[in-house]
Amino acid sequence: MPVEPGEWERIIAANPDHSRWYIQRFRDLEAAGNDIVGEARLIDAMLPRGSRALDAGCGPGRLGGYLHRVGHTVVGVDVDPALIEAAEQDYPGPTWIAANLADLDLPAHGIDDGFDAIVCAGNVMTFLAPSTRTDVLRAFERHLRVDGRAVVGFGAGRGYAFDDFFADARTAGLETDLRLATWDLRPFTDSSDFLVAVLRRA
Ligand SMILES: C[S@@+](CC[C@H](N)C(=O)[O-])C[C@H]1O[C@@H](n2cnc3c(N)ncnc32)[C@H](O)[C@@H]1O
Questions:
Q1: Average pLDDT for residues 135-163, to the nearest whole number?
Q2: With a threshold of 0.85, does the pTM exceed it?
Q3: Which residue in 34, 57, 108, 157 could disulfide with 29, CB within 3.0 to 4.6 Å?
Q4: Dihedral class, residue 88 (left if φ above 0, else alpha if ψ from -120 to 50, else beta)
């Protein structure tokens, strides 16, 4: 069955220039000397050198590009082919794949090995069609190595309540190991307006 299109697909259908704008935004931020890899530094801290990392909803590749640079084997997946093309140009090295996370099947792309870490940053979860959220979390579970961990970050007020996310993760066979409020390790509380969840296979 075809995957229901999500918010990102709706945005680019309404405004074909959106992807180009988004790509340029990160190019400009990087060129101006901004730190655009904070989330990836947290992932790197979780991994021995030479690990396998999946950048889920990688966009134009800032995080996967960094993880490759510091010595990990990286696969990046995004539903928007324009962003994948930009990732290939700006961050050569990782394997960049245009695909939907909801029916992700990396073995079908010749990638049989699981991942030590999956990073899903930049509110990707809130751009999914709600009907596909649990499928995406199931795909994370399927693509993790036995001891691997998925780290998922997104903000409140974007239509995906944190409690619903924790329930969906459980349904998908993922345990929440750690709840943080920021990528620089502030603790999660009832009033946090952002969640960084570290999940592992149940
Ligand atoms: C705000 S961007 C974040 C990009 C990147 N993670 C970052 O932080 O720089 C949200 C991304 O989610 C991707 N996305 C949304 N739905 C997706 C899906 N079903 N499968 C794969 N990628 C998806 C979009 O194409 C977009 O690149």
A1: 98
A2: yes
A3: 34
A4: alpha
